[in-house]
Amino acid sequence: MTAADLRDLLAEATDLTIVCHNNPDPDCLASALALGRIAAAAGVDERRILYSGDISHQQNRAFVNLLDVDLASLDPATVLDRETGSLLAFVDHGVPGRNNRVPEGTPVDIVIDHHPHEALDARFVDHREDVGATATILTEYVRELDVELDATLATALLFAIRRETLGFLRGVTRAEYEGAAFLHEPADADLLRRLASPAVTGATADAIATAIENRSIRGSTLLSNVGWTSERDALPQAADYLATLEGVETAVVFGIVDERVQLSARSTDSRVHVGDALADAFDDVGNAGGHREMAGGEIPLGIFADPAADGETLCDLVETVVVARLADAFGLSDVEGEAETEE
Predict the structure, then answer these.
(1) What are 112-131's pLDDT values in tens digits?
(2) How many domains are contained in the chain?
(3) From the CA atom positions of the chain, what is the Rg in Å?
(4) Element (DSSP H or E) covering residue 261
(5) Taking every annotated instance into account, which residue ranges of this chain make up the domain DHHA1 (predicted)?
(6) What are phi and psi of 102, to 5 degrees?
(7) Alpha-carbon distance 303 to 260, whole Å?
(8) In whole angstroms, what is the distance from residue 262 CA to residue 254 CA?
(9) CATH number for position 116
(10) Would you list the DSSP string of 325-341?
(11) Verdict on whether the full-model pTM lies above 0.90
Protein backbone atom coordinates (compact mmCIF):
# COMPACT_ATOMS: atom_id res chain seq x y z
CA MET A 1 0.00 0.00 0.00
CA THR A 2 1.10 3.56 -0.63
CA ALA A 3 1.29 6.84 1.23
CA ALA A 4 -1.67 8.03 -0.86
CA ASP A 5 -3.71 5.05 0.35
CA LEU A 6 -2.93 6.04 3.94
CA ARG A 7 -3.95 9.64 3.30
CA ASP A 8 -7.23 8.53 1.72
CA LEU A 9 -8.05 6.29 4.69
CA LEU A 10 -7.28 9.08 7.15
CA ALA A 11 -9.41 11.54 5.17
CA GLU A 12 -12.46 9.42 6.02
CA ALA A 13 -11.74 9.41 9.77
CA THR A 14 -13.39 11.40 12.52
CA ASP A 15 -10.52 10.81 14.94
CA LEU A 16 -7.31 8.79 15.24
CA THR A 17 -5.87 6.88 18.18
CA ILE A 18 -2.20 5.97 17.79
CA VAL A 19 -1.00 3.26 20.18
CA CYS A 20 2.70 2.95 20.94
CA HIS A 21 4.24 -0.31 22.11
CA ASN A 22 5.05 -0.84 25.77
CA ASN A 23 7.79 1.43 27.11
CA PRO A 24 8.06 3.29 23.77
CA ASP A 25 11.47 4.19 22.33
CA PRO A 26 12.39 7.07 19.97
CA ASP A 27 11.56 5.07 16.83
CA CYS A 28 8.04 4.42 18.07
CA LEU A 29 7.52 7.93 19.47
CA ALA A 30 8.80 9.71 16.37
CA SER A 31 6.68 7.49 14.13
CA ALA A 32 3.60 8.24 16.22
CA LEU A 33 4.34 11.96 16.06
CA ALA A 34 4.74 11.82 12.28
CA LEU A 35 1.55 9.81 11.77
CA GLY A 36 -0.31 12.38 13.84
CA ARG A 37 1.01 15.17 11.61
CA ILE A 38 -0.01 13.24 8.49
CA ALA A 39 -3.49 12.76 9.95
CA ALA A 40 -3.75 16.48 10.74
CA ALA A 41 -2.82 17.30 7.15
CA ALA A 42 -5.58 14.90 6.01
CA GLY A 43 -8.14 16.79 8.07
CA VAL A 44 -8.31 14.65 11.23
CA ASP A 45 -8.81 17.17 14.02
CA GLU A 46 -8.94 14.79 16.98
CA ARG A 47 -5.75 12.78 17.49
CA ARG A 48 -4.17 11.09 20.48
CA ILE A 49 -1.00 9.10 21.18
CA LEU A 50 -1.31 6.43 23.88
CA TYR A 51 1.25 4.16 25.53
CA SER A 52 1.58 1.54 28.25
CA GLY A 53 4.43 0.79 30.60
CA ASP A 54 7.03 3.41 31.47
CA ILE A 55 9.12 6.02 29.75
CA SER A 56 12.06 5.47 32.07
CA HIS A 57 15.09 5.33 29.77
CA GLN A 58 16.80 8.72 30.12
CA GLN A 59 16.97 9.10 26.34
CA ASN A 60 13.25 8.39 25.97
CA ARG A 61 12.40 10.84 28.74
CA ALA A 62 14.56 13.49 27.09
CA PHE A 63 12.86 12.80 23.76
CA VAL A 64 9.38 13.32 25.20
CA ASN A 65 10.33 16.37 27.25
CA LEU A 66 12.56 18.23 24.79
CA LEU A 67 10.24 17.63 21.83
CA ASP A 68 7.11 18.20 23.93
CA VAL A 69 5.40 15.01 22.72
CA ASP A 70 1.79 14.89 23.96
CA LEU A 71 1.20 11.39 25.38
CA ALA A 72 -1.47 9.75 27.51
CA SER A 73 -1.66 6.40 29.27
CA LEU A 74 -3.57 3.68 27.47
CA ASP A 75 -6.96 2.63 28.82
CA PRO A 76 -7.87 -0.59 26.97
CA ALA A 77 -11.54 0.42 27.06
CA THR A 78 -10.82 3.37 24.78
CA VAL A 79 -9.66 1.11 21.94
CA LEU A 80 -12.47 -1.42 22.39
CA ASP A 81 -15.32 1.10 22.45
CA ARG A 82 -14.87 3.05 19.21
CA GLU A 83 -17.47 4.69 17.03
CA THR A 84 -17.67 4.50 13.24
CA GLY A 85 -14.96 6.63 11.70
CA SER A 86 -12.64 6.31 14.69
CA LEU A 87 -9.37 4.76 13.54
CA LEU A 88 -6.85 2.77 15.61
CA ALA A 89 -3.21 2.74 14.52
CA PHE A 90 -0.12 0.83 15.65
CA VAL A 91 3.37 2.14 14.88
CA ASP A 92 6.57 0.14 15.44
CA HIS A 93 4.55 -2.92 16.51
CA GLY A 94 1.72 -4.79 14.89
CA VAL A 95 -0.31 -7.32 16.88
CA PRO A 96 -2.83 -6.61 19.67
CA GLY A 97 -1.63 -8.11 22.93
CA ARG A 98 2.01 -8.43 21.82
CA ASN A 99 4.26 -5.77 23.35
CA ASN A 100 1.20 -3.65 24.06
CA ARG A 101 -1.77 -3.67 26.45
CA VAL A 102 -4.40 -3.68 23.70
CA PRO A 103 -6.69 -6.71 24.18
CA GLU A 104 -6.02 -9.59 21.82
CA GLY A 105 -8.33 -9.67 18.82
CA THR A 106 -9.00 -5.91 18.81
CA PRO A 107 -9.55 -4.70 15.21
CA VAL A 108 -6.74 -2.40 14.06
CA ASP A 109 -7.04 -0.02 11.12
CA ILE A 110 -3.42 1.00 10.48
CA VAL A 111 -0.16 -0.87 11.10
CA ILE A 112 3.25 0.55 10.16
CA ASP A 113 6.21 -1.49 11.37
CA HIS A 114 9.63 -2.91 10.55
CA HIS A 115 9.76 -5.72 13.12
CA PRO A 116 9.41 -9.37 12.09
CA HIS A 117 5.83 -10.69 12.02
CA GLU A 118 4.29 -13.73 10.43
CA ALA A 119 1.03 -11.98 9.52
CA LEU A 120 -0.57 -8.59 10.21
CA ASP A 121 -4.27 -7.80 9.97
CA ALA A 122 -5.39 -4.20 9.37
CA ARG A 123 -7.09 -2.08 6.73
CA PHE A 124 -3.75 -0.44 5.95
CA VAL A 125 -0.51 -2.37 6.49
CA ASP A 126 3.01 -1.22 5.64
CA HIS A 127 5.30 -3.88 7.01
CA ARG A 128 8.93 -3.67 5.86
CA GLU A 129 11.37 -5.89 7.70
CA ASP A 130 14.10 -4.84 5.28
CA VAL A 131 14.32 -1.24 6.52
CA GLY A 132 16.24 -0.16 9.59
CA ALA A 133 13.55 1.87 11.37
CA THR A 134 9.82 2.51 11.34
CA ALA A 135 10.71 6.22 11.33
CA THR A 136 12.26 5.65 7.89
CA ILE A 137 8.85 4.63 6.54
CA LEU A 138 7.14 7.63 8.12
CA THR A 139 9.82 9.95 6.75
CA GLU A 140 9.02 8.61 3.29
CA TYR A 141 5.31 9.36 3.85
CA VAL A 142 6.01 12.89 5.06
CA ARG A 143 8.09 13.52 1.95
CA GLU A 144 5.67 11.94 -0.54
CA LEU A 145 2.59 13.62 0.93
CA ASP A 146 4.34 17.00 1.24
CA VAL A 147 3.46 17.26 4.95
CA GLU A 148 4.84 20.37 6.66
CA LEU A 149 8.23 19.48 8.13
CA ASP A 150 9.18 21.75 11.02
CA ALA A 151 12.27 21.44 13.21
CA THR A 152 10.49 19.36 15.85
CA LEU A 153 9.27 16.67 13.47
CA ALA A 154 12.53 16.60 11.48
CA THR A 155 14.59 16.30 14.66
CA ALA A 156 12.37 13.55 16.05
CA LEU A 157 12.53 11.44 12.89
CA LEU A 158 16.26 11.97 12.31
CA PHE A 159 17.15 11.11 15.90
CA ALA A 160 14.92 8.03 15.77
CA ILE A 161 16.61 6.75 12.61
CA ARG A 162 20.06 7.36 14.07
CA ARG A 163 19.18 5.72 17.38
CA GLU A 164 17.44 2.68 15.90
CA THR A 165 20.41 1.97 13.62
CA LEU A 166 23.02 2.77 16.30
CA GLY A 167 24.38 5.69 14.32
CA PHE A 168 23.87 4.02 10.91
CA LEU A 169 25.82 0.91 11.96
CA ARG A 170 23.06 -1.66 12.59
CA GLY A 171 20.44 -2.79 10.05
CA VAL A 172 20.92 0.35 8.00
CA THR A 173 19.76 0.51 4.38
CA ARG A 174 19.90 3.07 1.62
CA ALA A 175 16.46 4.27 2.75
CA GLU A 176 17.88 5.44 6.11
CA TYR A 177 20.57 7.53 4.41
CA GLU A 178 18.04 9.02 2.00
CA GLY A 179 15.67 9.82 4.85
CA ALA A 180 18.46 11.39 6.89
CA ALA A 181 19.51 13.57 3.95
CA PHE A 182 15.92 14.82 3.61
CA LEU A 183 15.66 15.54 7.36
CA HIS A 184 19.12 17.01 7.89
CA GLU A 185 18.54 20.64 6.96
CA PRO A 186 15.31 21.31 8.91
CA ALA A 187 16.47 19.35 11.99
CA ASP A 188 17.75 21.20 15.06
CA ALA A 189 21.43 20.22 15.47
CA ASP A 190 21.67 21.47 19.05
CA LEU A 191 18.58 19.51 20.04
CA LEU A 192 20.00 16.38 18.41
CA ARG A 193 23.14 16.72 20.55
CA ARG A 194 21.09 17.11 23.71
CA LEU A 195 18.98 14.06 22.87
CA ALA A 196 22.10 12.00 22.20
CA SER A 197 23.68 12.76 25.60
CA PRO A 198 20.99 12.83 28.31
CA ALA A 199 21.86 12.62 32.00
CA VAL A 200 22.07 9.11 33.48
CA THR A 201 20.55 8.42 36.91
CA GLY A 202 22.56 6.78 39.67
CA ALA A 203 20.07 3.89 39.74
CA THR A 204 20.65 3.21 36.05
CA ALA A 205 24.42 3.24 36.55
CA ASP A 206 24.04 0.83 39.48
CA ALA A 207 21.92 -1.58 37.42
CA ILE A 208 24.44 -1.55 34.58
CA ALA A 209 27.25 -2.13 37.10
CA THR A 210 25.36 -5.14 38.48
CA ALA A 211 24.96 -6.56 34.98
CA ILE A 212 28.71 -6.22 34.42
CA GLU A 213 29.54 -7.82 37.78
CA ASN A 214 27.14 -10.75 37.34
CA ARG A 215 28.12 -11.67 33.80
CA SER A 216 28.91 -15.24 32.85
CA ILE A 217 30.18 -16.40 29.49
CA ARG A 218 29.52 -19.65 27.66
CA GLY A 219 31.52 -19.81 24.46
CA SER A 220 30.84 -16.46 22.76
CA THR A 221 27.50 -15.91 24.55
CA LEU A 222 27.24 -13.76 27.66
CA LEU A 223 24.35 -13.99 30.13
CA SER A 224 23.76 -11.66 33.06
CA ASN A 225 21.08 -11.36 35.73
CA VAL A 226 20.69 -7.92 37.33
CA GLY A 227 18.16 -9.26 39.84
CA TRP A 228 15.48 -6.92 41.16
CA THR A 229 15.63 -3.45 39.63
CA SER A 230 13.39 -0.46 39.01
CA GLU A 231 15.50 0.52 36.00
CA ARG A 232 14.03 -1.52 33.15
CA ASP A 233 15.82 0.55 30.52
CA ALA A 234 19.19 -0.17 32.06
CA LEU A 235 18.90 -3.71 30.64
CA PRO A 236 19.26 -2.78 26.93
CA GLN A 237 22.01 -0.31 27.84
CA ALA A 238 23.87 -3.04 29.68
CA ALA A 239 23.33 -5.46 26.78
CA ASP A 240 24.70 -2.88 24.33
CA TYR A 241 27.84 -2.50 26.42
CA LEU A 242 28.41 -6.16 27.25
CA ALA A 243 28.06 -7.17 23.61
CA THR A 244 31.22 -5.14 22.91
CA LEU A 245 33.41 -7.20 25.27
CA GLU A 246 36.27 -9.07 23.62
CA GLY A 247 35.22 -12.56 22.62
CA VAL A 248 31.50 -11.87 23.14
CA GLU A 249 29.20 -12.08 20.11
CA THR A 250 25.83 -12.39 21.88
CA ALA A 251 24.76 -10.78 25.16
CA VAL A 252 21.49 -11.36 27.02
CA VAL A 253 20.68 -9.34 30.14
CA PHE A 254 17.60 -10.03 32.27
CA GLY A 255 16.11 -8.85 35.53
CA ILE A 256 12.91 -8.55 37.55
CA VAL A 257 11.02 -5.29 37.12
CA ASP A 258 7.80 -5.03 39.15
CA GLU A 259 5.96 -8.31 38.49
CA ARG A 260 7.70 -9.23 35.23
CA VAL A 261 10.96 -10.69 34.05
CA GLN A 262 12.43 -8.37 31.41
CA LEU A 263 15.06 -9.46 28.86
CA SER A 264 17.24 -7.61 26.39
CA ALA A 265 19.58 -9.22 23.86
CA ARG A 266 22.20 -8.03 21.37
CA SER A 267 24.25 -10.05 18.87
CA THR A 268 26.86 -9.63 16.16
CA ASP A 269 26.97 -13.37 15.44
CA SER A 270 25.79 -14.02 11.88
CA ARG A 271 24.79 -17.55 12.91
CA VAL A 272 22.36 -16.30 15.55
CA HIS A 273 18.96 -14.59 15.20
CA VAL A 274 18.38 -13.34 18.74
CA GLY A 275 14.75 -12.42 18.04
CA ASP A 276 13.94 -15.98 16.99
CA ALA A 277 15.97 -17.41 19.87
CA LEU A 278 14.12 -15.38 22.50
CA ALA A 279 10.79 -16.22 20.88
CA ASP A 280 11.66 -19.94 20.92
CA ALA A 281 12.66 -19.68 24.57
CA PHE A 282 9.76 -17.66 25.97
CA ASP A 283 6.85 -17.27 23.55
CA ASP A 284 4.92 -20.00 25.33
CA VAL A 285 4.96 -18.01 28.57
CA GLY A 286 5.16 -14.34 27.52
CA ASN A 287 6.11 -11.94 24.75
CA ALA A 288 9.58 -12.19 23.23
CA GLY A 289 11.22 -11.61 19.86
CA GLY A 290 12.78 -9.00 17.63
CA HIS A 291 15.48 -8.63 15.02
CA ARG A 292 18.53 -10.74 14.19
CA GLU A 293 20.84 -8.36 16.09
CA MET A 294 18.51 -6.89 18.74
CA ALA A 295 15.60 -8.37 20.68
CA GLY A 296 13.75 -8.29 23.96
CA GLY A 297 10.95 -9.85 25.95
CA GLU A 298 8.84 -9.78 29.07
CA ILE A 299 7.32 -12.65 31.01
CA PRO A 300 4.98 -12.60 34.04
CA LEU A 301 7.00 -13.38 37.13
CA GLY A 302 4.61 -16.05 38.37
CA ILE A 303 5.33 -18.25 35.36
CA PHE A 304 8.85 -18.98 36.60
CA ALA A 305 8.75 -19.00 40.34
CA ASP A 306 6.73 -19.36 43.51
CA PRO A 307 5.35 -15.90 44.38
CA ALA A 308 5.48 -16.87 48.07
CA ALA A 309 9.27 -17.19 48.00
CA ASP A 310 11.38 -14.46 49.57
CA GLY A 311 13.10 -11.95 47.31
CA GLU A 312 16.50 -13.60 47.11
CA THR A 313 15.08 -17.09 46.64
CA LEU A 314 12.68 -15.86 43.98
CA CYS A 315 15.53 -14.17 42.11
CA ASP A 316 17.55 -17.40 42.20
CA LEU A 317 14.60 -19.42 40.92
CA VAL A 318 14.06 -17.00 38.05
CA GLU A 319 17.75 -17.16 37.13
CA THR A 320 17.72 -20.95 37.09
CA VAL A 321 14.70 -21.17 34.77
CA VAL A 322 15.66 -18.28 32.48
CA VAL A 323 19.26 -19.45 32.05
CA ALA A 324 18.08 -22.99 31.31
CA ARG A 325 15.69 -21.78 28.63
CA LEU A 326 18.31 -19.47 27.13
CA ALA A 327 20.89 -22.26 27.11
CA ASP A 328 18.49 -24.47 25.20
CA ALA A 329 17.48 -21.74 22.73
CA PHE A 330 21.05 -20.67 22.01
CA GLY A 331 22.48 -24.18 22.01
CA LEU A 332 24.59 -23.60 25.12
CA SER A 333 23.74 -26.83 26.92
CA ASP A 334 26.97 -28.48 25.80
CA VAL A 335 29.11 -25.37 26.16
CA GLU A 336 31.07 -25.06 29.38
CA GLY A 337 30.15 -21.91 31.28
CA GLU A 338 32.63 -19.65 32.97
CA ALA A 339 31.81 -16.89 35.43
CA GLU A 340 33.88 -13.85 34.55
CA THR A 341 34.18 -10.88 36.86
CA GLU A 342 36.59 -8.01 37.29
CA GLU A 343 38.97 -8.14 40.25
Answers:
(1) 999 988 889 999 999 999 99
(2) 2
(3) 20
(4) strand 260-267
(5) 227-301
(6) -75, 130
(7) 9
(8) 6
(9) 3.90.1640.10
(10) HHHHHTT-TTSPEEE--
(11) no
